[in-house]
Recover the amino acids of this structure.
């Protein structure tokens, strides 16, 4: 399951009739979600940049959830963007931290659809107001999705709309957003990302049982490791037994980079993995603590039902 980070840019959710409904729906229907309510986190507008960047790094899908204010996002969300999208994080020579994550702008609009038309009082279609966000996504390497938005969401008792109508539209909005999140989570790229994340969290634990790994390995697996070459399931088990004699459990594998290419017949995955681990005294590493970086190249196939199989697994120290 993809991890979803929702940045709520409403400046005061206590006063919200629609964004709050959408956020509650996301909270109750997504398994792996971090909803960051900027109004309660940062009532003084002082954004904790490190905390926000750390949250984004964990995300597969980033949702910006906000009310449409003066044809764009509220100032609080713009401040978040100005502060968080820094040099060498979102752009610049090392600014690849958001690369290939999915971005969804999800917002509620006060005006009716026919106002957003050359002949209407707002003149331009909503999509034209999206250009700054769209281009920001391109610059940061984020995958820009068509926005999810809903018109006629302003509720002023006795003046604009009925509460039950705006809230019904908000629930429909939430359903459309959830369906897009579901579609993106099931894309081959996102399935592979979840698979890789699960693989390394199992490797962190280094449990004795190898069945959860071997179900994902081709019978004729080709594994080229710094320790030597290993073939098939028995080869994997030999390598794994050797690793368990050297590395203590509860090590930490961090996926610093992942690049997935669809080669037609399968997927070519390039990874940069950092391993922080303690080793056993009686191993050839004599109890040293390690912090090392490796490059990995995996060749995968995916069946029609999304089952992933590893065919080639190549690891080289950096
Ligand atoms: C400061 C402000 C600016 C707004 N600007 C626009 C706008 O440019 N276009 C529009 O259609 N609605 C506009 N609205 C209406 C909001 O989009 C609408 O109230 C909001 O989406 C409702 O969300 P909520 O119930 O979560 O507060 C504005 C509202 C406020 C308070």
């Amino acid at each position: 399951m993809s991890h979803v980070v929702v940045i709520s840019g409403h400046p005061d959710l206590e006063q919200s009739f629609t964004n709050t409904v959408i956020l509650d729906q996301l909270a109750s229907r997504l398994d792996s979600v971090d909803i960051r309510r900027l109004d309660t986190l940062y009532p003084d507008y002082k954004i904790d940049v490190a905390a926000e960047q750390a949250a984004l790094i964990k995300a597969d899908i980033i949702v910006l959830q906000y009310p449409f204010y003066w044809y764009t996002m509220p100032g609080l969300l713009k401040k978040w963007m100005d502060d968080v999208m820094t040099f060498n994080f979102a752009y610049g020579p090392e600014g690849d931290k958001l690369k290939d994550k999915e971005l969804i702008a999800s917002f509620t609009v006060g005006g009716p659809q026919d106002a957003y038309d050359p002949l209407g009082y707002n003149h331009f279609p909503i999509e034209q107001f999206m250009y700054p966000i769209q281009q920001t996504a391109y610059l940061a390497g984020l995958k820009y999705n068509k926005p999810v938005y809903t018109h006629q969401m302003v509720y002023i008792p006795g003046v604009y709309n009925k509460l039950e109508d705006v809230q019904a539209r908000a629930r429909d909005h939430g359903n459309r957003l959830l369906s897009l999140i579901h579609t993106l989570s099931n894309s081959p790229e996102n399935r592979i990302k979840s698979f890789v994340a699960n693989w390394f969290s199992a490797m962190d634990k280094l449990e004795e049982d190898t069945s959860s790994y071997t179900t994902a390995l081709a019978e004729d697996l080709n594994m080229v490791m710094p320790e030597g070459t290993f073939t098939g399931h028995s080869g994997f088990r030999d390598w794994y037994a050797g690793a368990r004699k050297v590395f203590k459990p509860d090590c930490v594998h961090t996926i610093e980079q992942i690049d997935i290419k669809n080669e037609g017949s399968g997927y070519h995955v390039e990874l940069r993995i950092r391993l922080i681990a303690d080793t056993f005294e009686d191993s050839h590493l004599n109890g040293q603590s390690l912090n090392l970086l490796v490059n990995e190249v995996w060749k995968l196939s995916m069946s029609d039902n999304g089952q992933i199989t590893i065919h080639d697994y190549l690891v080289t120290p950096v």
Notes: Residues 10, 16-19, 67-71, 108-111, 153-154 surround flavin mononucleotide (CB under 6 Å). The chain has two domains: 4-186, 189-317. The mean pLDDT is 97.
